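Standup notes
- DV: blocked on the single-chain target, sequence here:
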Amino acid sequence: MLYLLGLIAGQKGEYEIAIGFLQSAIQSNSTIPLFYYHLGNALMAQQRVAEAIENFRHTLRLNPTHSESLNNLGIALKQSGQLEEAATCLQQLLVTHPAWAQAHYNLGNVFTAQGKLNEAVSCYQQALQLHPQDFDTLNNLAEDLKRQGQCPAAFTYYQQA
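- DV (later): unblocked, structure below
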């Protein structure tokens, strides 16, 4: 019941309340991976990135195949500046889920932050093959192409966006 109350509070944007319920759910049963996953999401919504990372890692210790946790861990690690580890998480995710457009996009964002624009462009292009009209991917691809001096190609993607 506490877990469900935490989910409902999180869906309503009441993240502090969600965090309290989810922490209580974990105190009553610390073996359920989804408790930690949703707590990590609520913590991310509150910009409590270090705590979110801990919870996503805990989820993965309990369930190493929980792909959403691996994705969100990669996002959180990027936000905390741990770019190499973020890239590793997302690359690991793409080994088992190569058709996950959002993971390609997230890895592209990490590569952009690392200044690896060729790799970022490749990730964004792969994401667009899977989800052709995604505005954020089109925009980020255009930005990185512009940074590389490929203005005509960048313009094309800006127009699509």
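- Follow-up: Residues 87 and 107 are 6 Å apart (CA to CA).
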